[in-house]
Structures are given as structure tokens and as C-alpha cells.
Amino acid sequence: MNCPGSVRLIPLAPPDEPSLYAERGTAAHWAAEYSLKTSCDPLDLEGEESPNGMILNQEDVEAVQVFTDLVRKDSEQTDKTVYTEVKFHLSKIHPEMWGTADYVAISEDLQSLQVLDYKHGAGVIVEVVDNLQLMYYTLGAIQFVCEKQELDYLEVMDWGQVFKHVDVGIIQPRAKHVDGSIRTWRVPGPTLTKVATIFEKGIERALKSDAPLIPGSHCRFCRALPICPKIDKTTASKPHFQATRLPELDFDPITS
After folding, report:
1. Dihedral of the CA atoms 93, 97, 102, 108 (nearest 10)?
2. Contacts by 119-122, CB closer than 8 A, 24 or more apart
3. pLDDT by residue (tens digit) across 36-81?
4. Are strands 98-107 and 112-118 parallel, antiparallel or unpaired?
5. Distance (Å) of CA 236 to CA 8, 21, 222, 243, 250
């Protein structure tokens, strides 16, 4: 959505070389998934090698333990159903929209939905309010739950009306945030409806043959950066490419 033209450019880019930070995050997610599928704790995995070749250190396993403790505690509650590593599709918006949500919980009365995302990074603090990635996962979770429970809510309601309460959260144990490691936000129903429309517009823009390339702080994580005609070495070295805040859109994600 920041740069619609990047969608057509990325397949032409050289193979992506994952950073050490990304590899460490992948290893941490593996540790969480492995622990939740077995009887072990992440703390038991210190010194173990993950499938991507990373050795889990004490800081890694202690951070992952925060997430797995929360999942196990919530799973013991009788008034909710908890899902982890939720593979979802957002075909209600576009057939090629998909993803994986770390944690999805639905209340027994089907009135409340909770979506949490684990972040292993320590250098980039992720905010929870108005987080478009989280709301993407949330829309995916809504469709997932409706299909899982065989509910036809999405046939007769818009996204913001399906659940009475929708709470999203970021779990980021290794980052120092004034609000702590676990940060949550109750998403207003109208916001979900507006964000669904924003995603529809984003896809429409990205699929156009003349979709524009728009440089900005979001370029920092773009695979097409090495071949992008809008970027040169001078531009790429500017401070805004090292910004730690979330990327800015060229339209308001809430009011558009």
C-alpha cells in the first residue's frame, strides 16, 4: 500500500538474503510452535539448533516463554477456544490474500475475538494501535472463525459487525516499551470495515500496470530495493530509510 509498484518489481529482484534478525525471528517462531505442540517449554530449548540453523540462546528462549505461557494459560480457560499458527485466506477480499496468525481466540458465546502477534525483534518497537498488519491478521481470523464454526456472518454483515468485541495485541518481550511486553487494543468495528476497504483499494492499485513506485521509509524492508529505479545510493543512505517507526501511507489508513 505504501508502494503499489513494488508488487510487480519484487519478482524481478535477486533472491532475498534473510538478515540475521529475520533468521533469529524465524527460529523463535519455530521454538514457540514446537513447544506448544509438545510438552516442553521454550526454556528447555536453550542451546538447541532450529531448522534454519540458528542456535537458540537464553534471551531467545526467555522471550518465547512469555508467549507460550500466555497461550497455555488462555487455553486452560473454558470460556474460549484458542488457535495458534492459524493459516488463513482472505478470499472475501481477494483470492491471493493469505497469511498466518500467531494466536487467535474466540469466546464460547462467539461474541469476542482476540488476535495476537509475536514479535521477536528488539530494535524496532511495534505499536499496536492502528497497526495495519494486525488488522490484516484480524480480518483473516474473522474469515477463519466463520468458516471453522460454519457461520454465515460474512454473508449478511460487514467486517466490523461480526463480533461485538475485537481485541488485537503485540507480544514483544525483547523490546523496551513503556506499556510493557504485551500491548493490546480494542479495535472499533467501523475501523475494521474501513480497513477492509483500504486493502481492497490497495490491491486494485497494485494490480495496475502503471502502479507507481513510491520511495519512503518502507523501502528499508523491500526486496526490490537493489533494482528499484526510484532509488539511488544517495537516496538509500538518507536517515529516513533507517527509521524505526512504522511506514507511513500516502493516505490516512483510518479515515480514507
Report:
1. 30
2. 119/25, 119/170, 119/171, 119/172, 119/175, 120/24, 120/25, 120/28, 120/29, 120/60, 120/63, 120/64, 120/172, 120/174, 121/21, 121/25, 121/172, 121/174, 121/175, 122/174, 122/175
3. 999 899 999 999 999 999 999 999 999 999 999 999 999 999 999 9
4. antiparallel
5. 20, 20, 12, 12, 19
Cell 533468521: give the residue. Answer: 23
Angle formed at CA 95 by CA 92 and CA 98, multiple of 5 degrees: 90
Asked whether 145 and 136 are in contact (CB, 8 A), the reply is no
C-alpha cell at 167: 481485541
Helix (H, G, I), strand (E, B), or coil: what is residue 113? strand
> What is the distance between the alpha carbons of residues 220 and 6, in angstroms, rounded to a whole number?
13
pTM to 2 decimals?
0.86
Amino acid 241: pLDDT:
43
CA distance 234 to 85: 41
> Distances from the Cα of 37 to the Cαs of 13, 15, 34, 53, 239, in angstroms?
36, 32, 5, 20, 43
Q: Where are the domains of the chain?
A: 13-210
**What is the average pLDDT across 120-140?**
94
Q: In what order do the strands lie in the sheet with 98-107?
A: 80-89, 98-107, 112-118, 165-171, 182-186
Tens of pLDDT, residue by residue over 93-117, are 999 899 999 999 999 999 999 999 9
Q: How many helices (H) and strands (E) does the chain have?
A: 7, 5
Vertex 249 angle, CA 5 and 172, to 5°:
110
